[in-house]
């Protein structure tokens, strides 16, 4: 089968950083689905895994952790899907990725594709929807049924993939007042269209901008952009007993002591945790994606596809990685078909 992979970790402008390859089609076992991949989307995790380092893979490594397609075969223990089912999912960081014609994935982290979306628009959702949902509802403990309606949340990095769905979940399901950060007029407009009540610029003085909007503090913070850079501002504006969740790993020490006097919470979200450790509640991601699909089909959530980059091949994937590395992405980058 066709696939796009790597054996060396190189700068994205090197033609060998991602290459077209032919590899064997895998066979499903246990609870695995064999999915015929129709569309994929590209995330910052792809660029971080591909980032230059002194390592050579003994066999081609396939990246890609967002896909939509059709179940082509099932393992003997599968109970949630059947051959022919349209699906969408993010997969596992510990297994080969989805940048291939066929892909194995555990059924417990797969959802039924929204019926109202084509494969390209569906592929834009899984990784970011899982991340934003878990960050907001599992890590911060916000109610998805509106029990905390009226409280405030600061979404740092609102126009990116996770921010784009996070704004919608916070506003539409939780009923929070959403302040999203965006550094350009077009990204600010994107955030407001998705439901942000206010936008500020994360390149500027965020506490001062919040005060100018009438927010001396915020109840929750979702950090989807540069934890190191924004930690001081987050500690300054989080309310007493407030909660901060970040998805971006830090490079230096974080001054978590600054949160002590406020009894504020700082917590991480990593959407691969369940699949990486085989947690007993892995199936929650199946249920989560099915609920996202239901909400999309009901018109309560919308896809976050920002740009369709054409077919799935090495040249287009290198282009997608380069766009992501520029830091100028709005929404999700999607590729479709081999």
Description of the structure:
By secondary structure, the protein is of the alpha/beta class. It is built from ten helices and 16 strands. It folds into two domains: 2-125 and 273-336, Alpha-Beta Complex (Quinone Oxidoreductase, Chain A, domain 1); 129-268, 3-Layer(aba) Sandwich (Rossmann fold). Strands 3, 5, 6, 7, 8, 15 and 16 form a seven-stranded mixed sheet that branches. The chain has a six-stranded parallel sheet with strand order 11-10-9-12-13-14, with helices on both faces.
Sequence-ordered SSE layout with sheet pairings:
Blueprint (H helix, E strand, L loop, with lengths): L1 E8 L9 E4 L9 E11 L1 H7 L2 E10 L4 E8 L11 E4 L12 E5 L3 E3 L6 H5 L2 H14 L12 E5 L4 H13 L3 E5 L3 H10 L3 E3 L5 H7 L5 E6 L3 H11 E9 L18 E4 L4 H5 L5 H15 L7 E4 L5 H13 L5 E5 L2
Parallel strand pairs: 9-10, 9-12, 10-11, 12-13, 13-14, 15-16
Antiparallel strand pairs: 1-2, 1-4, 3-5, 3-7, 3-16, 5-6, 6-8
Helix pairs in contact: 3-4, 3-9
């Amino acid at each position: 089968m066709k696939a796009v992979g790597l054996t060396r970790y190189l700068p994205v402008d090197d033609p060998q950083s991602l290459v077209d390859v032919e590899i064997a089609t895998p066979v499903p076992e246990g609870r695995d689905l064999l999915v015929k991949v129709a569309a994929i989307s590209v995330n910052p995790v792809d660029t971080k895994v591909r980032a230059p380092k002194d390592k050579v893979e003994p066999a081609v490594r396939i990246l890609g952790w967002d896909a939509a397609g059709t179940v082509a075969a099932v393992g003997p223990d599968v109970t949630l899907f059947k051959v022919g089912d349209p699906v969408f999912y993010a997969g596992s960081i510990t297994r080969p990725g989805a940048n291939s014609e066929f892909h194995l994935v555990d059924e417990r982290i797969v959802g039924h594709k929204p019926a109202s979306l084509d494969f390209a628009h569906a592929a834009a959702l899984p990784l970011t929807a899982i991340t934003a949902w878990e960050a907001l509802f599992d890590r911060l403990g916000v109610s998805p049924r509106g029990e905390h309606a009226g409280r405030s949340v600061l979404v740092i990095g609102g126009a990116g993939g996770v921010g784009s769905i996070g704004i919608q979940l916070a506003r539409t399901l939780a009923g929070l007042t959403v302040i999203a950060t965006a550094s350009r007029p077009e990204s600010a407009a994107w955030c407001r269209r998705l439901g942000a009540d206010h936008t500020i610029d994360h390149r500027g003085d965020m506490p001062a901008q919040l005060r100018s909007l009438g927010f001396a503090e915020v109840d929750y913070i979702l950090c989807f952009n540069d934890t190191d850079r924004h930690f001081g501002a987050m500690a300054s504006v989080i309310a007493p007993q407030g909660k901060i969740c970040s998805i971006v790993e830090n490079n230096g020490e974080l001054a978590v002591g600054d949160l002590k006097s406020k009894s504020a919470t700082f917590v991480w979200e990593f959407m691969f945790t369940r699949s990486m450790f085989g947690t007993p509640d892995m199936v929650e991601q199946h249920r989560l994606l099915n609920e996202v699909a239901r909400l999309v089909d009901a018109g309560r959530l919308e896809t976050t596809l920002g740009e369709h980059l054409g077919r799935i091949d090495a040249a287009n994937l290198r282009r997608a990685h380069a766009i992501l590395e520029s830091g100028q992405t709005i929404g999700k980058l999607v590729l479709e078909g081999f």
